[in-house]
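USER: Study each token:
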Amino acid sequence: MSRRYKTMGSENAIYNLDKYFYLVDQAINEYDYSDIREADIVLDIGACVGGFSLEVNSKVTHVYAVEPMFCDLLYANIKLNKASNVTVFECALGESNTTQHISFVDKTSDVAGKSLSEIILMCGGHVDVLKTDCEGGEWHIKPHELEGIRRIEAEIHSFNGEHLDDFKTMLQETGYNVYVKNRSKTTMLLSARK
């Protein structure tokens, strides 16, 4: 049975979390919300149970939440918060027309893979803010797909030998100013702005 919590550090949303409280707390505290604008279209890849999506939905025009694993809790939290401007896509960032096998926490799932370009088209063709925390799926992002995105909040993962600095360099070469907020051997948390 799911329980209802008021999230730590948040005055913006309440969540049905079951045992995933730490995932919301992590989303609330890891990302920079300082220059989110009312007219922004936000794409949240790896929306999980809605930690980022529900923190920004009342501040922006629309949020598109991409989530392959926790859709039941995500939908429940959207309903609980009456967040009518959040649309969920049940897919994963990956190669086009593929099936992605995803394992996270205590769940596994096979879901449709979509490129960032395809997902942006599903959002109406334009995104202002991109948040991504998709457990390695971010390596499928191509520089040209970032056209028009003003701001990025990202948790980058290196589970298959990727070099974290390569992702940072790709963003810099695409015209972003990148600030690394936290880093370990396999994970880098960053903000990027044009």
Q: What stands out?
A: The chain is about 20% helix and 30% strand.
